[in-house]
């Protein structure tokens, strides 16, 4: 039987993350839980950008759609945390579908601008409807609303394991998706849209499907982030949160399943370390990105794949 | 001839700012034939087949295919209806494997046996031993064959080949002719071709375009004997 190296690698990463639950000091423990949740969002970004070639600058809208659907759901409507997660998932997917219907009439630079504008409109709407969203100040989600059945998401250990479970599900689904016929069609659309059209694929439908899947990922990432860390604020809908997943994905490797997570880990600890030695930590991040674009434009895992590990999904 | 018409174009027209690329063309394809489309450079051949495949929208006129009006059907839907187009300039997915290139064609028609169908299409053009190779690393001739394999894997009713032998070596052209002959009569072939040996050898009927209009249609012998064609194209 042929060994499925790709699957083993991903299971190995998940096992290592489980081991870290027992081994990591408290500070890193919280960091990694946060990174895992944000990686779910980044995986969603990668499905659109890395695999389908849709460079969006407005994914914060999808992330915050999930975030606010969950936060407002549990605080205003009294939903349970589990229902909140589902609401976030659906809100992200529905928002992506709606935005896609309009934005996917454009491509390239125009698509970037249109998605950026939608996200800014969303950000301003959050500020404008401050009565429900609490605008800049944000919604603090109480401990009582953060119970997923018997699991208390405000507890560090529980939170880590729930984050890992969500991350694992997202990662394995991502792996399955990109190896499926649908994944092949997405990559084909990225590589050559005209050829794909002349093989009978409607570019609009393929892209809208990919964007909606991306939105589902972003939405549940946002919802989980709010419920696990107890806060939903307008800053999480700002343009910065559209750019971050792009940077993570570029760093880790666009179009690789583990790239978003690797990029998020590295960027997080790079900023963490840089801010301990200098105030100019943004300069360090910037320099790292310039080096990346110059010497490894495919990102870390993209370069690894190009240099020999062809099986890397 | 008790022939069945597969495709019927009437008054097909496409102008680009005053340039009459295709101007009121009537054209019929008989099911199962190999039909060649020839004409001098700029005669409108590629524009004409682009109208048939839907890559360029029709300005006026109608196209009927397999009994239905497809004039307004978008390109991807025409592919699903059974019109496959292979590009004049090779358009493959260079960064994907040879297998994936053809599998994309096979899964487009919802093949139930994706691996088998893909390998069968590759075997027909003799690329089955290169399935794992990256398509971009194939030689030019093999890339042209891959393009044809993608067309075959779609199992089209009509296969449009746009200058398929351009840039091929003599031996490769022979392989290519054998492949085209093996496609009919299950499918119909429309061939745009500059190589007159290939045209005269393969085609059952030939249509000559000149300045966007049909100059003549007929058997290779009739076309060869046609005075107007000789003047316009074959060099008098």
SSE topology sketch:
The complex is a heterodimer of chains A (313) and B (236).
Chain A: H1 5-23, H2 26-51, H3 59-76, H4 81-103, H5 109-128, H6 130-133, E1 139-140, E2 147-148, E3 151-152, H7 156-179, H8 181-191, H9 193-197, H10 203-229, E4 231-232, H11 240-252, H12 259-277, H13 281-295, H14 299-306
Antiparallel strand pairs in A: 1-4, 2-3
Chain B: E1 5-16, E2 19-30, E3 34-38, H1 45-53, E4 60-65, E5 68-69, H2 75-81, E6 83-86, H3 98-108, H4 114-124, H5 140-153, E7 158-162, H6 170-183, E8 188-192, H7 196-202, E9 205-210, E10 213-218, H8 220-225, H9 227-234
Parallel strand pairs in B: 3-8, 3-9, 6-7, 7-8
Antiparallel strand pairs in B: 1-2, 1-4, 4-5, 9-10
Helix pairs in contact in B: 3-4, 3-5, 4-5
Brief synopsis:
The complex is a heterodimer of chains A (313) and B (236). Chain A is an all-alpha fold and 313 residues long.
Explain what the structure shows.
Chain A has 313 residues and is mainly α. Chain A has helices spanning 5-23, 26-51, 59-76, 81-103, 109-128, 130-133, 156-179, 181-191, 193-197, 203-229, 240-252, 259-277, 281-295, 299-306; strands at residues 139-140, 147-148, 151-152, 231-232. A two-stranded antiparallel ribbon of chain A has the order 1-4. In chain A, strands 2-3 form a two-stranded antiparallel sheet. Chain A is globular and about 55 Å long. The model of chain A has no long low-confidence stretch (mean pLDDT 91). By secondary structure, chain B is an alpha/beta fold. In chain B, the strands form 2 sheets. A 6-stranded mixed beta sheet of chain B has the order 6-7-8-3-9-10, sandwiched between helices. A 4-stranded antiparallel beta sheet of chain B has the order 2-1-4-5, covered by helices on one side. In chain B, strand 7 (158-162), helix 6 and strand 8 (188-192) form a beta-alpha-beta unit. In chain B, helix 3 crosses helix 4 (114-124) and helix 3 (98-108) packs parallel to helix 5 (140-153). The model of chain B has no long low-confidence stretch (mean pLDDT 91). At the A-B interface, helix 8 and helix 9 of A face helix 2 and helix 3 of B.
């Amino acid at each position: 039987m042929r060994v499925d190296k790709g699957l083993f690698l991903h299971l190995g990463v998940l096992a290592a993350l489980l081991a870290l639950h027992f081994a990591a000091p408290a500070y890193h423990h919280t960091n990694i839980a946060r990174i895992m949740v944000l990686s779910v969002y980044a995986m969603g970004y990668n499905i659109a950008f890395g695999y389908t070639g849709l460079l969006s600058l407005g994914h914060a809208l999808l992330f915050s759609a999930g975030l606010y659907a969950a936060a407002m759901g549990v605080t205003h409507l009294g939903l349970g945390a589990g229902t909140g997660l589902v609401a976030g998932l659906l809100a992200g997917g529905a928002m992506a579908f709606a935005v896609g219907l309009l934005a996917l009439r454009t491509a390239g630079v125009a698509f970037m601008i249109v998605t950026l504008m939608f996200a800014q409109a969303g950000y301003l709407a959050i500020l404008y409807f401050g009565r429900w969203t609490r605008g800049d100040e944000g919604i603090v989600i109480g401990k009582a609303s953060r119970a997923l059945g018997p699991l208390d998401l405000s507890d560090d250990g529980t939170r880590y394991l729930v984050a890992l479970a969500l991350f694992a599900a997202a990662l394995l689904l991502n792996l399955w998706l990109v190896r499926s016929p649908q994944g092949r069609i997405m990559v084909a659309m990225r590589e050559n849209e005209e050829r794909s059209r002349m093989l009978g694929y409607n570019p609009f439908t393929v892209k809208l499907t990919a964007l909606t899947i991306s939105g589902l990922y972003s939405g549940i990432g946002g919802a989980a982030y709010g419920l696990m860390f107890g806060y939903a604020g307008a800053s999480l809908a700002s343009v910065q949160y559209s750019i971050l997943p792009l940077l993570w994905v570029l760093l880790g490797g666009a179009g690789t399943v583990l790239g978003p997570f690797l990029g998020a880990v590295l960027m997080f600890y790079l900023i963490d370390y840089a801010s301990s030695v200098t105030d100019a930590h943004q300069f360090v991040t910037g320099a790292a990105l310039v080096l990346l674009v110059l010497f490894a434009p495919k990102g870390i895992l993209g370069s690894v794949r190009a240099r020999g590990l062809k099986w890397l999904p | 001839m008790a022939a069945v018409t597969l495709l019927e174009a009437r008054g097909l027209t496409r102008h680009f700012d005053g340039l009459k690329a295709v101007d009121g063309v009537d054209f019929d394809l008989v099911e199962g034939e190999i039909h060649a489309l020839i004409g001098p450079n700029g005669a409108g051949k590629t524009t004409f087949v682009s109208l048939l495949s839907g890559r360029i929208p029709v300005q006026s006129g109608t196209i009927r295919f397999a009994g239905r009006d497809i004039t307004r059907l978008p390109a991807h839907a025409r592919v699903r209806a059974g019109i496959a187009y292979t590009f004049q300039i090779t358009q493959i997915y260079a960064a994907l494997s040879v297998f994936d290139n053809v599998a994309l064609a096979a899964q487009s028609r919802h093949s139930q046996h994706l691996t088998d169908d893909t390998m069968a299409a590759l075997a027909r053009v003799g690329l089955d031993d290169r399935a794992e190779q990256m398509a971009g690393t194939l030689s030019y001739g093999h890339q042209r064959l891959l393009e044809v394999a993608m067309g075959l894997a779609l199992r089209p009713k009509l296969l449009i080949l746009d200058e398929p032998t351009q840039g091929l070596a003599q031996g490769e052209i022979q392989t290519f002719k054998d492949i085209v002959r093996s496609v009919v009569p299950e499918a119909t072939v429309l061939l745009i071709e500059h190589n007159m040996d290939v045209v005269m050898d393969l085609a059952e009927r030939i249509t000559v375009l000149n300045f966007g209009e049909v100059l003549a249609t007929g058997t290779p012998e009739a076309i060869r004997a046609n005075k107007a064609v000789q003047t316009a194209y074959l060099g008098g």
